[in-house]
Design a protein that fits this description.
6-stranded parallel beta sheet, 14 helices, 14 strands, globular
Length: 381
Protein backbone atom coordinates (compact mmCIF):
# COMPACT_ATOMS: atom_id res chain seq x y z
CA UNK A 1 0.00 0.00 0.00
CA UNK A 2 1.18 3.48 -0.71
CA UNK A 3 0.05 4.70 2.68
CA UNK A 4 0.73 2.72 5.84
CA UNK A 5 -0.93 2.69 9.23
CA UNK A 6 -4.30 4.02 10.25
CA UNK A 7 -6.94 5.52 8.03
CA UNK A 8 -6.31 8.88 9.71
CA UNK A 9 -3.00 10.16 8.43
CA UNK A 10 -0.75 12.65 10.13
CA UNK A 11 -0.07 15.51 7.74
CA UNK A 12 2.53 18.19 8.50
CA UNK A 13 1.48 21.28 6.57
CA UNK A 14 2.61 24.87 6.18
CA UNK A 15 0.17 27.00 8.13
CA UNK A 16 -0.13 29.48 5.23
CA UNK A 17 -1.76 26.98 2.86
CA UNK A 18 -5.31 27.95 1.89
CA UNK A 19 -8.11 25.39 1.98
CA UNK A 20 -6.11 22.80 3.93
CA UNK A 21 -8.95 21.76 6.24
CA UNK A 22 -11.42 21.32 3.36
CA UNK A 23 -9.03 19.08 1.42
CA UNK A 24 -6.16 17.35 3.21
CA UNK A 25 -7.94 17.73 6.53
CA UNK A 26 -10.61 15.31 5.28
CA UNK A 27 -8.03 12.52 5.23
CA UNK A 28 -6.08 12.99 8.41
CA UNK A 29 -4.79 15.10 11.28
CA UNK A 30 -3.26 18.37 10.17
CA UNK A 31 -0.23 19.66 12.06
CA UNK A 32 0.13 23.27 10.90
CA UNK A 33 3.59 24.78 11.23
CA UNK A 34 5.73 27.68 10.12
CA UNK A 35 7.19 26.24 6.91
CA UNK A 36 10.70 27.50 7.62
CA UNK A 37 10.69 25.80 11.03
CA UNK A 38 9.75 22.25 9.99
CA UNK A 39 12.41 19.85 11.29
CA UNK A 40 12.97 16.09 11.05
CA UNK A 41 11.71 15.65 14.61
CA UNK A 42 8.34 17.05 13.52
CA UNK A 43 7.99 14.30 10.90
CA UNK A 44 8.48 11.26 13.14
CA UNK A 45 5.00 9.86 12.47
CA UNK A 46 3.93 11.94 9.46
CA UNK A 47 3.16 10.33 6.11
CA UNK A 48 2.48 13.56 4.21
CA UNK A 49 4.26 16.91 4.15
CA UNK A 50 2.56 19.79 2.31
CA UNK A 51 4.67 22.95 2.06
CA UNK A 52 5.46 26.12 0.18
CA UNK A 53 8.83 27.54 -0.91
CA UNK A 54 10.10 28.21 2.63
CA UNK A 55 10.70 24.49 3.33
CA UNK A 56 13.74 22.70 1.86
CA UNK A 57 12.61 19.12 1.20
CA UNK A 58 15.75 16.98 0.96
CA UNK A 59 17.56 14.09 2.63
CA UNK A 60 18.57 16.23 5.61
CA UNK A 61 14.92 16.78 6.44
CA UNK A 62 13.24 13.57 5.28
CA UNK A 63 15.66 10.65 5.42
CA UNK A 64 14.52 8.12 8.01
CA UNK A 65 11.02 9.60 8.33
CA UNK A 66 7.81 7.82 7.27
CA UNK A 67 6.92 10.63 4.85
CA UNK A 68 5.81 9.11 1.53
CA UNK A 69 4.34 12.16 -0.22
CA UNK A 70 5.67 15.72 -0.43
CA UNK A 71 3.55 18.40 -2.05
CA UNK A 72 4.45 22.03 -2.64
CA UNK A 73 1.60 24.38 -3.47
CA UNK A 74 3.98 26.54 -5.49
CA UNK A 75 5.03 26.70 -9.12
CA UNK A 76 8.74 26.18 -8.49
CA UNK A 77 10.54 23.07 -7.25
CA UNK A 78 14.01 24.49 -6.54
CA UNK A 79 13.34 23.92 -2.80
CA UNK A 80 12.70 20.21 -3.44
CA UNK A 81 15.57 17.78 -4.04
CA UNK A 82 13.49 15.92 -6.60
CA UNK A 83 16.31 13.53 -7.58
CA UNK A 84 16.72 12.40 -3.97
CA UNK A 85 12.96 12.18 -3.42
CA UNK A 86 12.63 9.87 -6.42
CA UNK A 87 15.53 7.68 -5.29
CA UNK A 88 13.98 7.49 -1.82
CA UNK A 89 10.63 6.40 -3.26
CA UNK A 90 8.87 9.54 -2.05
CA UNK A 91 6.20 10.87 -4.39
CA UNK A 92 6.27 14.62 -4.95
CA UNK A 93 3.98 17.12 -6.60
CA UNK A 94 4.03 20.83 -7.34
CA UNK A 95 1.44 23.20 -8.75
CA UNK A 96 2.68 24.58 -12.09
CA UNK A 97 0.74 27.60 -13.22
CA UNK A 98 -1.32 27.85 -10.03
CA UNK A 99 -0.53 31.49 -9.36
CA UNK A 100 0.50 32.55 -12.86
CA UNK A 101 -2.32 35.09 -13.18
CA UNK A 102 -1.45 36.51 -9.77
CA UNK A 103 2.26 36.81 -10.52
CA UNK A 104 1.70 38.36 -13.96
CA UNK A 105 -0.81 40.89 -12.64
CA UNK A 106 1.47 41.85 -9.76
CA UNK A 107 4.41 42.22 -12.15
CA UNK A 108 2.33 44.61 -14.25
CA UNK A 109 1.59 46.62 -11.09
CA UNK A 110 5.32 46.71 -10.22
CA UNK A 111 6.19 47.92 -13.71
CA UNK A 112 3.47 50.58 -13.59
CA UNK A 113 4.70 51.89 -10.22
CA UNK A 114 8.35 51.84 -11.32
CA UNK A 115 7.51 53.85 -14.44
CA UNK A 116 5.68 56.40 -12.30
CA UNK A 117 8.64 56.72 -9.95
CA UNK A 118 11.09 57.04 -12.83
CA UNK A 119 8.91 59.62 -14.58
CA UNK A 120 8.27 57.42 -17.60
CA UNK A 121 5.20 56.59 -19.64
CA UNK A 122 4.80 52.81 -19.87
CA UNK A 123 3.18 53.22 -23.28
CA UNK A 124 6.45 54.66 -24.64
CA UNK A 125 8.52 51.71 -23.39
CA UNK A 126 9.56 48.46 -25.07
CA UNK A 127 9.28 45.46 -22.74
CA UNK A 128 11.43 42.35 -23.13
CA UNK A 129 10.15 39.24 -21.34
CA UNK A 130 12.71 36.52 -20.62
CA UNK A 131 10.78 33.29 -20.06
CA UNK A 132 7.40 33.06 -21.77
CA UNK A 133 5.97 30.22 -19.72
CA UNK A 134 2.92 30.32 -17.47
CA UNK A 135 3.68 33.75 -15.98
CA UNK A 136 5.60 35.35 -18.84
CA UNK A 137 2.91 34.52 -21.39
CA UNK A 138 0.24 36.07 -19.18
CA UNK A 139 2.27 39.24 -18.65
CA UNK A 140 2.76 39.36 -22.43
CA UNK A 141 -1.04 39.25 -22.90
CA UNK A 142 -1.67 41.93 -20.26
CA UNK A 143 0.85 44.34 -21.76
CA UNK A 144 -0.37 43.65 -25.29
CA UNK A 145 -3.95 44.32 -24.17
CA UNK A 146 -2.77 47.76 -23.03
CA UNK A 147 -1.04 48.41 -26.36
CA UNK A 148 2.51 48.17 -25.00
CA UNK A 149 5.24 46.93 -27.37
CA UNK A 150 6.43 43.53 -26.07
CA UNK A 151 8.96 40.94 -27.24
CA UNK A 152 9.77 37.62 -25.57
CA UNK A 153 12.77 35.31 -25.34
CA UNK A 154 12.47 31.65 -24.32
CA UNK A 155 15.15 29.21 -25.61
CA UNK A 156 13.33 26.02 -24.51
CA UNK A 157 10.20 27.13 -26.39
CA UNK A 158 12.30 28.10 -29.41
CA UNK A 159 13.84 24.61 -29.38
CA UNK A 160 10.31 23.19 -29.61
CA UNK A 161 9.60 25.26 -32.69
CA UNK A 162 7.52 28.02 -31.11
CA UNK A 163 7.59 31.07 -33.36
CA UNK A 164 7.48 34.77 -32.59
CA UNK A 165 10.37 34.71 -30.09
CA UNK A 166 13.48 36.89 -30.11
CA UNK A 167 17.08 36.36 -29.01
CA UNK A 168 18.10 37.10 -25.45
CA UNK A 169 20.17 40.04 -26.68
CA UNK A 170 17.06 41.52 -28.31
CA UNK A 171 15.08 41.10 -25.08
CA UNK A 172 17.90 42.63 -23.02
CA UNK A 173 18.00 45.62 -25.38
CA UNK A 174 14.51 46.73 -24.29
CA UNK A 175 13.69 49.61 -21.95
CA UNK A 176 12.15 47.16 -19.45
CA UNK A 177 13.37 43.58 -18.98
CA UNK A 178 11.11 41.27 -16.96
CA UNK A 179 12.34 37.85 -15.80
CA UNK A 180 10.01 34.86 -15.65
CA UNK A 181 12.24 31.79 -15.62
CA UNK A 182 12.54 28.92 -13.12
CA UNK A 183 15.69 28.59 -11.01
CA UNK A 184 17.73 25.73 -12.48
CA UNK A 185 21.33 24.52 -12.17
CA UNK A 186 21.43 21.99 -14.98
CA UNK A 187 20.11 21.32 -18.46
CA UNK A 188 20.92 23.25 -21.62
CA UNK A 189 19.77 26.59 -20.18
CA UNK A 190 20.66 26.84 -16.46
CA UNK A 191 19.30 30.02 -14.94
CA UNK A 192 21.09 30.43 -11.62
CA UNK A 193 23.03 33.68 -11.91
CA UNK A 194 22.01 34.01 -15.57
CA UNK A 195 21.97 37.80 -15.30
CA UNK A 196 25.49 38.55 -14.18
CA UNK A 197 27.79 41.42 -15.03
CA UNK A 198 28.20 40.49 -18.70
CA UNK A 199 24.46 40.29 -19.47
CA UNK A 200 23.59 43.31 -17.34
CA UNK A 201 26.08 45.27 -19.44
CA UNK A 202 23.95 44.52 -22.51
CA UNK A 203 20.99 46.43 -21.11
CA UNK A 204 20.66 50.03 -22.32
CA UNK A 205 21.52 52.87 -19.97
CA UNK A 206 18.58 53.62 -17.69
CA UNK A 207 16.78 50.32 -18.40
CA UNK A 208 14.54 48.77 -15.75
CA UNK A 209 15.14 45.17 -14.64
CA UNK A 210 12.09 43.46 -13.12
CA UNK A 211 12.44 40.20 -11.18
CA UNK A 212 9.38 38.33 -9.97
CA UNK A 213 10.84 34.91 -10.83
CA UNK A 214 13.51 33.70 -8.38
CA UNK A 215 16.04 35.88 -6.62
CA UNK A 216 19.11 33.88 -7.54
CA UNK A 217 18.62 34.09 -11.30
CA UNK A 218 20.31 37.48 -10.86
CA UNK A 219 23.85 38.00 -9.55
CA UNK A 220 23.13 40.33 -6.63
CA UNK A 221 26.63 41.84 -6.45
CA UNK A 222 26.68 42.63 -10.16
CA UNK A 223 23.21 44.15 -9.98
CA UNK A 224 24.16 46.30 -7.00
CA UNK A 225 27.13 47.71 -8.92
CA UNK A 226 24.82 48.70 -11.79
CA UNK A 227 22.37 50.34 -9.38
CA UNK A 228 25.17 52.23 -7.67
CA UNK A 229 26.37 53.83 -10.89
CA UNK A 230 22.80 54.51 -12.03
CA UNK A 231 23.19 52.65 -15.30
CA UNK A 232 20.10 50.54 -14.71
CA UNK A 233 17.15 50.46 -12.29
CA UNK A 234 15.44 47.52 -10.62
CA UNK A 235 11.98 46.51 -9.48
CA UNK A 236 12.41 43.42 -7.32
CA UNK A 237 9.95 41.04 -5.73
CA UNK A 238 12.52 38.21 -5.61
CA UNK A 239 15.93 38.73 -4.03
CA UNK A 240 19.31 37.01 -4.11
CA UNK A 241 19.81 35.09 -0.86
CA UNK A 242 16.34 35.81 0.52
CA UNK A 243 15.18 36.13 3.23
CA UNK A 244 18.60 37.60 4.17
CA UNK A 245 18.38 40.66 1.94
CA UNK A 246 21.23 43.01 1.20
CA UNK A 247 20.06 46.30 2.74
CA UNK A 248 21.81 48.46 0.15
CA UNK A 249 20.16 46.54 -2.69
CA UNK A 250 16.83 47.04 -0.94
CA UNK A 251 17.41 50.78 -0.58
CA UNK A 252 18.53 51.27 -4.18
CA UNK A 253 15.69 49.33 -5.82
CA UNK A 254 13.05 51.50 -7.49
CA UNK A 255 10.33 49.08 -6.35
CA UNK A 256 10.93 46.55 -3.56
CA UNK A 257 8.43 43.92 -2.37
CA UNK A 258 8.82 40.74 -0.26
CA UNK A 259 8.39 37.87 -2.78
CA UNK A 260 4.59 38.09 -2.85
CA UNK A 261 3.80 38.40 -6.57
CA UNK A 262 2.03 35.05 -6.56
CA UNK A 263 0.39 35.53 -3.17
CA UNK A 264 -3.19 36.15 -4.23
CA UNK A 265 -5.90 34.15 -2.56
CA UNK A 266 -6.76 32.67 -5.96
CA UNK A 267 -3.20 31.53 -6.58
CA UNK A 268 -2.92 29.91 -3.17
CA UNK A 269 -6.24 28.11 -3.50
CA UNK A 270 -5.33 26.92 -6.99
CA UNK A 271 -2.06 25.53 -5.62
CA UNK A 272 -3.89 23.59 -2.93
CA UNK A 273 -6.38 22.23 -5.48
CA UNK A 274 -3.64 20.98 -7.80
CA UNK A 275 -1.56 19.28 -5.10
CA UNK A 276 -4.63 17.78 -3.42
CA UNK A 277 -5.73 16.25 -6.73
CA UNK A 278 -2.20 14.88 -7.26
CA UNK A 279 -2.18 13.37 -3.76
CA UNK A 280 -5.55 11.71 -4.22
CA UNK A 281 -4.52 10.28 -7.60
CA UNK A 282 -1.30 8.88 -6.14
CA UNK A 283 -2.98 7.45 -3.04
CA UNK A 284 -5.91 5.98 -4.95
CA UNK A 285 -8.37 8.09 -2.97
CA UNK A 286 -11.53 9.81 -4.10
CA UNK A 287 -11.28 13.57 -3.50
CA UNK A 288 -13.82 14.36 -0.80
CA UNK A 289 -13.13 18.04 -0.27
CA UNK A 290 -12.96 21.13 -2.45
CA UNK A 291 -11.33 24.51 -2.15
CA UNK A 292 -13.96 27.22 -2.38
CA UNK A 293 -13.35 30.47 -4.23
CA UNK A 294 -12.68 33.57 -2.17
CA UNK A 295 -15.05 36.47 -1.70
CA UNK A 296 -15.48 38.97 -4.53
CA UNK A 297 -14.19 42.52 -3.96
CA UNK A 298 -15.69 45.78 -5.22
CA UNK A 299 -14.02 48.88 -6.65
CA UNK A 300 -15.34 52.19 -7.96
CA UNK A 301 -13.02 53.93 -10.44
CA UNK A 302 -13.68 57.65 -10.70
CA UNK A 303 -11.10 59.05 -13.09
CA UNK A 304 -10.50 57.60 -16.55
CA UNK A 305 -7.06 59.25 -16.60
CA UNK A 306 -5.92 57.42 -13.46
CA UNK A 307 -7.80 54.18 -14.09
CA UNK A 308 -4.71 51.95 -14.08
CA UNK A 309 -3.20 53.54 -10.99
CA UNK A 310 -6.47 53.19 -9.07
CA UNK A 311 -7.14 49.61 -10.17
CA UNK A 312 -3.61 48.26 -9.78
CA UNK A 313 -3.11 49.83 -6.35
CA UNK A 314 -6.44 48.43 -5.16
CA UNK A 315 -5.88 44.93 -6.55
CA UNK A 316 -2.14 44.49 -5.89
CA UNK A 317 -1.26 47.21 -3.32
CA UNK A 318 2.40 47.24 -4.38
CA UNK A 319 3.13 50.68 -2.84
CA UNK A 320 1.97 49.47 0.59
CA UNK A 321 4.31 46.48 0.65
CA UNK A 322 7.12 48.44 -0.93
CA UNK A 323 6.92 50.84 2.03
CA UNK A 324 6.70 47.99 4.55
CA UNK A 325 9.76 46.21 3.16
CA UNK A 326 11.83 49.40 3.00
CA UNK A 327 11.31 49.91 6.72
CA UNK A 328 13.57 46.88 7.23
CA UNK A 329 16.54 48.48 5.46
CA UNK A 330 19.48 49.08 7.77
CA UNK A 331 18.39 46.55 10.38
CA UNK A 332 20.68 43.63 11.31
CA UNK A 333 20.47 40.85 8.71
CA UNK A 334 18.65 38.45 11.04
CA UNK A 335 16.00 41.08 11.73
CA UNK A 336 15.63 41.80 8.00
CA UNK A 337 15.12 38.07 7.39
CA UNK A 338 12.53 37.79 10.17
CA UNK A 339 10.71 40.88 8.92
CA UNK A 340 10.75 39.61 5.33
CA UNK A 341 9.16 36.33 6.41
CA UNK A 342 6.63 38.15 8.59
CA UNK A 343 5.46 40.31 5.66
CA UNK A 344 4.85 37.16 3.62
CA UNK A 345 3.13 35.33 6.47
CA UNK A 346 0.86 38.27 7.31
CA UNK A 347 0.11 39.18 3.69
CA UNK A 348 -3.41 40.63 3.38
CA UNK A 349 -6.26 39.19 1.38
CA UNK A 350 -5.87 39.71 -2.35
CA UNK A 351 -7.91 38.57 -5.35
CA UNK A 352 -6.84 38.20 -8.96
CA UNK A 353 -8.42 40.67 -11.37
CA UNK A 354 -11.36 38.35 -12.12
CA UNK A 355 -12.25 38.47 -8.41
CA UNK A 356 -13.07 42.19 -8.61
CA UNK A 357 -16.37 43.79 -9.54
CA UNK A 358 -15.50 47.25 -10.86
CA UNK A 359 -17.87 50.13 -11.43
CA UNK A 360 -16.46 52.74 -13.82
CA UNK A 361 -17.78 56.22 -14.52
CA UNK A 362 -16.39 56.18 -18.06
CA UNK A 363 -16.67 53.65 -20.86
CA UNK A 364 -12.98 54.16 -21.70
CA UNK A 365 -11.93 53.13 -18.19
CA UNK A 366 -14.27 50.14 -18.31
CA UNK A 367 -12.80 49.03 -21.63
CA UNK A 368 -9.24 49.23 -20.30
CA UNK A 369 -9.99 47.24 -17.16
CA UNK A 370 -12.10 44.67 -18.97
CA UNK A 371 -9.17 44.00 -21.31
CA UNK A 372 -7.06 43.16 -18.25
CA UNK A 373 -9.62 40.72 -16.86
CA UNK A 374 -11.51 42.80 -14.31
CA UNK A 375 -15.27 42.14 -14.13
CA UNK A 376 -17.15 45.32 -15.01
CA UNK A 377 -20.32 46.02 -13.07
CA UNK A 378 -22.50 47.57 -15.77
CA UNK A 379 -25.34 48.33 -13.37
CA UNK A 380 -23.47 51.20 -11.74
CA UNK A 381 -22.12 52.95 -14.84
Amino acid sequence: ARLQGSDRLKIVIDRNIRGAEETFGQHGELVAMDGRRIRKADLGDAELMIVRTATIANADLLEGTPVRFVGTTSIGTDHLDTDWLQRAGIEWANAPGCNADSAAQYTLAMIWLACQRLGRDLFDQRVGIIGRGNVGSRLHRLLTALGVHVVANDPPLADRGVSGLVSQDDALACDIVSLHVPLTDSGPYPTRGMLGQERLERMPHGALLVNAARGDVVDGDALLEKLRDGSIHAALDCWPGEPRLNSELLQRATVATPHVAGYSDDGKRNGTRIVYQAFCAWAGLTPVGRVADGRRLALLVHDANSVLTEALEAACFVPRHDAALRRLAGLPTDEVAAGFDALRKEYPYRRDFHGWSVACESSRAAQTLSALGFVIDGSKR
